[in-house]
Amino acid sequence: MIYDVIIIGGGPAGLTAGLYAARARLNTLIIEKGADGGQIATTDEVENYPGAPEDSTGPSIVARMAKQAESFGAKRASDEIVEVDFSDKIKILKGKKEEYKAKSIIIATGAVPRTIGAPGEKELTGRGVSYCATCDAAFFEDLEVFVMGGGDTAVEEAIYLTKFARKVTIIHRRDELRAAKSIQEKAFKNDKIEFMWDTVITEIKGDAMLESFVVKNLKTGEEKEIFPDEDDGAFGIFVFVGYLPATKLFDGIINLDNGYIVTDDNMKTNVPGVFAAGDNRVKSLRQVVTATADGAIAAVQAEKYIENNFEE
C-alpha cells in the first residue's frame, strides 16, 4: 500500500498532523515506536495549553489528541523506522517490523533528554538517575532528591517533585536560574527547595543503585561527594539540562542545523514531499502549542504537495 501521508512520531506534532491529514481525507498513517506523547507524556501539569481544563496532564491531553486523530481515520502502526529512502517520488521507510511507502512524509520525531555526560550516569539511569519526574517521583516519597538544571523544565519539575520528596536541591552551573521569572518565584517561595549555585555533577557512583555523586564548584574548583541521609539510605538525581533532536536517521539526507531539521515557514524541508514538525526542527519556541501548530501546517502543506504532484 502507498499512503498519502506517513507521519513519523506520535507526539503533539505528529498527532495533530494526523488529525488534519485524515480529516482532509488523505490516507494517513502515524508510526510511533513507543508510547504516544513524546515529552508531554512525562509532564504532570500543563498550565499553558490554550483552552485545556485546569486539571490537564500531559497524558490526558495526548490521549484526547490520539482519539481525535483516529476518529477522523488516521491509521496507527507501532514500529521503529531504521532507514529512509527519499530519493524518488514515492518515499520509502524501513521499520524493524515492516516497510512503508508514501507520497509524502511528515517527520515529527521530537527530541530526547540531554545527559550530563558524567561517569556512571548511563549505568545508573533508572537506578536513582531519572529524566522524568512524573514517571519516577513516587519512588522518592519522603526522600531527598537533586535536580540538575536551571531552565523552565528543571525548575517546574523541581516544584513538582516537592509533592513527593522531603527536600529538593536544584544544582545549577550558573549563579542564577534561566527559568521564566514567574516559575522562579514559585521555586524561591517553596520551603522544600534549596539551591546549589555554580555547580556541576562530575561523577555518579553506585553498584546496583545510586549510592553517591560528586559535585564541583566551578568558581572555587572545590569538589565534594554527596551521600544520602543515613536515615533515608537512598536518594535520587533528576536531570533536566535540555534536549537533543531525534534526527540522526536523517543526517545527510535532510538539511540539519546542530541536529535540528531546517524548514521554511510551511514546514518544508529541502526534500520535496518531506516535511518536519515539532521539537525536532529549527525554531525559537519548543512548546506543545507550537508543536501542534507545526503539525497542522505540515499536514495542509502535504495535502497541497500531493494535489500538485500526483494525478488522480
Give a written overview of the molecule.
This protein is an alpha/beta fold and 312 residues long. The chain folds into two domains: 2-113 and 243-309, 3-Layer(bba) Sandwich (FAD/NAD(P)-binding domain), CATH 3.50.50.60; 129-239, FAD/NAD(P)-binding domain. Helices cover 23% and strands 29% of the residues. It has six helices and 19 strands. The protein has helices at 12-23, 58-71, 133-136, 152-161, 181-189, 288-309, and strands at residues 2-8, 28-32, 75-78, 81-85, 91-95, 99-107, 111-113, 129-130, 144-148, 167-171, 193-196, 199-206, 210-217, 223-226, 235-239, 243-245, 256-257, 260-261, 274-276. The strands form five sheets. Strands 1, 2, 3, 4, 5, 6 and 19 form a seven-stranded mixed beta sheet that branches. A five-stranded parallel beta sheet has the order 8-15-9-10-11. Strand 13 (210-217) and strand 14 (223-226) form a beta hairpin. Helix 4 (152-161) packs parallel to helix 5 (181-189). The mean pLDDT is 94.
